[in-house]
Design goal:
This protein is of the alpha+beta class and 485 residues long. The chain has 3 domains: 38-63 and 72-84 and 96-282, Thrombin, subunit H (Beta Barrel), CATH 2.40.10; 285-378, Pdz3 Domain, CATH 2.30.42.10; 391-484, PDZ domain (Pdz3 Domain, Roll), CATH 2.30.42. Helix content is 22%, strand content 35%. The chain has 9 helices and 28 strands. The protein has helices at 3-48, 75-82, 266-279, 296-301, 320-323, 343-351, 405-410, 429-432, 452-461; strands spanning 52-64, 95-110, 121-125, 135-139, 145-154, 159-164, 173-174, 185-190, 198-209, 220-223, 235-237, 242-250, 261-265, 285-286, 289-293, 310-315, 331-335, 338-339, 358-365, 368-375, 377-378, 391-393, 398-402, 419-424, 440-444, 447-448, 467-474, 477-484. Strands 22, 23, 24, 25, 26, 27 and 28 form a 7-stranded antiparallel sheet that branches. The chain has a 6-stranded antiparallel barrel with strand order 1-2-3-6-5-4. A 6-stranded antiparallel β-barrel has the order 8-9-10-13-12-11. A hairpin with a 2-residue loop joins strand 27 and strand 28 (477-484). It is globular and about 90 Å long. It starts with a helix and ends with a strand.
C-alpha cells in the first residue's frame, strides 16, 4: 500500500473515531444523569423512611359473610379506592352481627405549631384511615410500636392527627405545595397492601383538582406515582425530601392502579392539623354565597370580556355577604389581593380564613370593578302566588307552573318567587342541561319570573336568538344556566 493510501485510511479512521467521541460523551452524560436521579430517590428514602409509619386500626362493625374477593385490609379502604364496582362488592352478603375488623394505612411524624414535644409525637394521616377506630397501632421502620389516640379528625378535608405518648421521634420536613409545578418529580412513600415502607416515583401530572367528590374541600395534587390501598395518609415528597402532599386516593375503572393518584396539598393539611391539635376541631370561614364557575356562555351573557373570576349565583339572607352588599350576578375576580379563577380553590381559601376577620374582595358588577370588604363569619353558625295555567315550552322541552304553597310542599321547595318545573321531556335541551322536576326557575335573561305566564313570555322574547340564560334553584342551591336550541 502506498504512503498516500495509508495516510488516507489512517486519517479517515481517526476522523470517524473523533466524530464518535461526542456521541459517546453524550451517552455517558445521560447515564450519569440517570445515576444522579436514582441516587436522589435513594437519598429521599433514607432521609424520610424513619419518619413514615405503618398504621393498623382495629374497629368493631357490622360483619358480613366473606366473599372470594373480600380484602384482608378492610373493605372500606378498598371501596374508597376502587368503588362499588370492585369484584366482590356487588355480591349480596349476609349480616353476621358485630365483628372485629382490621384496616391499614400510612402516616408520618410532623412538627406542629407547638414544635416537637419531649413526651408527645403527632402523626399526620387521612381521616378515613382512622374512621371508627377502637384501637390504633403505630409502627416505625425500626420496629418500634406505639398505641395511638386520635387527637382530632376532619372528614370534610380527610385530615386526621394521631397522638402517641413518646418524644424524640424523627419528624419530616414540610415543603411548600404552592411551589409545585406540573412535570416535577415526586415520591410516594407508604405501606401499600401492608408492604412496609414502599417507595414509588412519578411526576406531578396536574394541580388544583376539584369537584372529584372525594372530599368536601378539595384541591388535589394529581400524580402518576403509584398509590395503592395502604398508601392512604403517607407522604408525597419532592426531591429535597420535603412533604408536599398526603396521598389519599386513586382513580380506577379496573380495580387496580391506573396512573392517576390524588394527594392533599400539605399547605392545606398543615393548617387543618394545627387546628385539630389546638382545639380538636376545625373552624371555617363563611360568606353565605353560592358560587359557580364562569363558562364562555355565561361570560357572554354577562357581557364579560374574559373568563377570569367566579360568579355569585345566590346570596343568603342576613349572611356576611348580604351585609357586605354582595349580589347575585357579581363576578369575584380577587380575594385578599390574589386572583380568583377556580370555585374549589376560592372555597378553600375562604374556609381557611379566620372567622371574625375582614377580607377584601374585588368584584365586577355591571362591567365596573369595585372593592368590597366583608367580615368573615363562622361556618358552624351559617346555613346555607296565585295559580296560573300550566305553560309548556317546546323549545326547551319543559313544563312549568307558578310556585304555589301546595306545589312548594309537593316538590319540597321553599315557597316564594319563581316557577317550578313539573315535567321535563327526555332528551330535551332542558333534560340534557340537568333540569328536572322540582327545579325552580327564578330568572330568565336577568329578569325575575314569578308566574308561568311571565316565564312563557320571557322565553318567547328570547326565541329569535335561540338562546336563554336561566337562574335556577335546585335543592336550595342556585346557579346560572345557558340553554341553546
Amino acid at each position: 500500500m502506498s504512503y498516500k493510501k495509508l495516510f488516507f485510511v489512517l486519517s479517515f479512521t481517526l476522523l470517524l473515531l473523533l466524530s464518535a467521541l461526542p456521541v459517546l460523551s453524550l451517552a455517558d452524560d445521560g447515564v450519569e444523569n440517570l445515576r444522579q436521579t436514582s441516587k436522589a430517590f435513594a437519598s429521599v428514602a433514607r432521609q424520610v423512611s424513619p419518619s413514615v409509619v405503618f398504621i393498623q386500626v382495629e374497629s368493631t362493625r357490622e360483619g358480613f359473610a366473606l366473599t372470594p374477593f373480600q380484602s384482608p385490609f378492610g373493605d372500606d379502604l378498598f371501596k374508597r379506592f376502587f368503588g362499588d364496582d370492585f369484584p366482590g362488592f356487588s355480591q349480596p352478603q349476609k349480616p353476621q352481627g358485630k365483628q372485629r375488623a382490621v384496616s391499614q394505612g400510612s402516616g408520618f411524624v410532623f412538627s406542629s405549631k407547638k414544635g416537637m414535644l419531649s413526651d408527645t409525637t403527632y402523626i399526620l394521616t387521612n381521616s378515613h384511615v382512622v374512621e371508627g377506630a377502637d384501637k390504633i397501632n403505630v409502627k416505625f421502620q425500626d420496629g418500634r410500636e406505639f398505641d395511638g389516640e386520635i387527637k382530632g379528625k376532619d372528614p370534610k378535608s380527610d385530615i386526621a392527627v394521631i397522638e402517641i405518648k413518646a418524644g424524640g421521634l424523627p419528624a419530616t420536613a414540610l415543603g411548600d405545595s404552592s411551589q409545585l409545578e406540573v412535570g416535577e418529580w415526586v415520591i410516594a412513600l407508604g405501606n401499600p397492601f401492608g408492604l412496609s415502607h414502599t417507595l414509588t416515583v412519578g411526576v406531578v401530572s396536574a394541580k388544583g383538582r376539584t369537584g372529584l367528590g372525594i372530599n368536601d374541600y378539595e384541591d388535589f395534587i394529581q400524580t402518576d406515582a403509584a398509590i395503592n390501598p395502604g398508601n392512604s395518609g403517607g407522604p408525597l415528597l419532592n426531591l429535597d425530601g420535603e412533604v408536599v402532599g398526603i396521598n389519599t386516593a386513586i382513580f380506577s375503572r379496573s380495580g387496580g392502579y391506573m396512573g392517576v393518584g390524588f394527594a392533599i396539598p400539605v399547605n392545606l393539611a398543615k393548617g387543618i392539623a394545627d387546628q385539630l391539635i389546638e382545639t380538636g376541631e376545625v373552624t371555617r370561614g363563611y360568606m353565605g354565597i353560592v358560587i359557580q364557575q364562569l363558562t364562555p356562555e355565561l361570560a357572554d351573557s354577562f357581557d364579560l370580556k374574559d373568563m377570569k373570576g367566579i360568579l355569585i349565583a345566590q346570596v343568603s339572607e342576613d349572611s356576611p355577604a348580604a351585609k357586605a352588599d354582595l349580589k347575585t350576578g357579581d363576578l369575584i375576580v380577587e380575594y385578599q389581593g390574589k386572583p380568583v379563577t377556580d370555585v374549589g380553590n376560592f372555597r378553600n381559601r375562604v374556609a381557611l380564613t379566620t372567622p371574625g376577620s375582614t377580607a377584601e374582595l374585588t368584584i365586577i358588577r355591571h362591567g365596573k370593578r369595585r372593592s368590597v370588604n366583608i367580615k368573615i363569619g363562622n361556618l358552624s353558625d351559617g346555613k346555607l302566588l296565585a295559580q296560573d295555567a300550566t305553560q309548556s315550552t317546546d323549545a326547551l322541552g319543559l313544563t312549568v307552573q307558578t310556585l304555589t304553597p301546595d306545589l312548594a310542599q309537593q316538590f319540597d321547595v321553599k315557597p316564594g318567587k319563581g316557577v317550578v318545573v313539573t315535567e321535563v321531556q327526555p332528551g330535551s335541551v332542558a333534560s340534557m342541561a340537568g333540569i328536572r322536576r322540582g327545579t325552580v326557575i327564578l330568572q330568565v335573561d336577568h329578569k325575575e319570573v314569578n308566574s308561568a305566564a311571565e316565564f312563557k313570555q320571557a322565553i318567547k322574547n328570547s326565541s329569535d336568538d335561540k338562546r336563554v340564560m336561566l337562574l335556577i334553584n335546585d335543592h336550595g342551591m342556585s346557579r346560572f344556566l345557558v340553554l341553546k336550541w
